[in-house]
Amino acid sequence: MKEIDDFKEISAIEILDEQYREAENKSEIDFWTPLTKIIMESMEIRSKKSLSQNDLAKLMKTKQSVISRFENMGRLPNYDFVSRLAIALGHPLGMTMYGDFMAVIPGEKQKMVKEFAEKENLSTADFTQELLDKAVESITDQYVESQSIDINTEVVFSGGISIDVNNTLSSYLVIPNESQKDDRLTA
Amino acid sequence: MNIYCYPDDNKIIQLSSKTKAEEQRGSVYKFLKKLMKDRPDLWALTNSTLKEAQKLDDLKRFEKNKWVGKLKREDSPIYEFRIPPTKRGGVVRIYFAYIDSKPKSIMLLSAELKHKKGSNNGKVTQAVRRYKEMCK
Predict the structure, then answer these.
(1) What is the ipTM of this complex?
(2) Domain positions in chain A
(3) B28 and chain A: CB distance < 8 Å anywhere?
(4) pTM of this prediction?
């Protein structure tokens, strides 16, 4: 058999990521992605708990066909269904408008995180948020460092006016919009 | 799992242009690109399915839920992803084979959007041909 290296390695995941980056219909993809993710998560938890569709249906006081339709994307679930599904699978539902900034602790690490949260007397959600806050805090320093070369340089606006940013990170990071520009320059 | 797409041209060729690079990415790439445009719902589900599969050591969970199955062929061990297993609006079928020389790796050989049961085995035949090419 040929070695994989004999082929030019084309990672399916890289292809999918690239297609998403270049998608002209990104909003349509974004519309469907959360649903596809909860289908995957639902099947993952169901599988870990060795629950059949029928078992899950019983927990939710519904029919197996309803679960099947959901997993096959045959119906768009409403809030009531999704929330009851999450609770039946042992987790409260999490929803956010900031989906692009949302993260989920991998399944195999969840037990450990939950135990740490209990030790800290925090809810798992609060502890997870704290973990995320700390991680973001730790990369903030790197971010500031990576921007430091430009911090002392001039920022030239489209009208030809330039200002010294004067080593003030906040001034550099928050570029004023058109209406704020004049106020800022005179200040 | 490592998931690869079978290239149209399996020789390593210098990538001189984007078009050529796209050509070399193979039919699964082109299929996914068209799917994204025509059926964003199924593209999103395929994306989530393959990313979930990538996280796993094996595809048993998918097999159990009938998202993955082995084709009944004696000549080649070809499997398929059925994404999702049953859907009136169509099912994405991605034919693949395990790569013997690389553990926990599969090669996506061909793909199609199937609307109903049919006797058109063109994509399966293509998958078998590519599998045999892979085994040479």
Answers:
(1) 0.86
(2) 1-102, 104-140, 152-186
(3) yes
(4) 0.80
